[in-house]
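Sample pair:
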Amino acid sequence: MRKLVYYVGISIDGYIAGPGGEWDFYPVSDALAAYINGEMSEAVPTHVRQQVGLDAPNRRFDTLVMGRGTYEPALEAGITSPYAHLRQYVVSSTIGSIDAPGVELVKEDPLGLVRRLKQEDGLDIWLCGGGKLAASVLPEIDELIVKAYPVVAGTGIAAFDGAFQPTTFTLTGTRTFEGGVVLMTYTR
């Protein structure tokens, strides 16, 4: 069965973005960029893949689930299909419609969506963000891949923004990059 993997970057204090959705304050070293381009290339947006000459086949993910706040920056840049190399689902009750090939709007029941996707054949499913969506599908998250950046944000969008529901995961791997970024992998 496919796994739902929440691959996300966070600040030391647990925020995936600033209060306005900012994420550009996270330092990305050359070594971290090489890791992302090499081992997590599906997580590189299609237009960036083209700019850096990245033409790697999907090895880990073939499907992406994201919230409105994750999708909107692409729209603001005129990009309607930010991850065209993946099947994309945008979970939002406030977006009216999406007219982009390969992008499906899901207005309700993200948990049902994830459960259905996990039953299909294919590679794993990347939970791209945001915090409210992550909290709503927490019962189905099989793996966390967390890039912890050596930054305190102070406030912003929490990695999980929902009800109190303590959920235990097991640390299965760590890797440290220059500049102090620590990559931690947890499994359920």
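Helices lie at 30-39, 46-51, 68-76, 110-119, 131-136.
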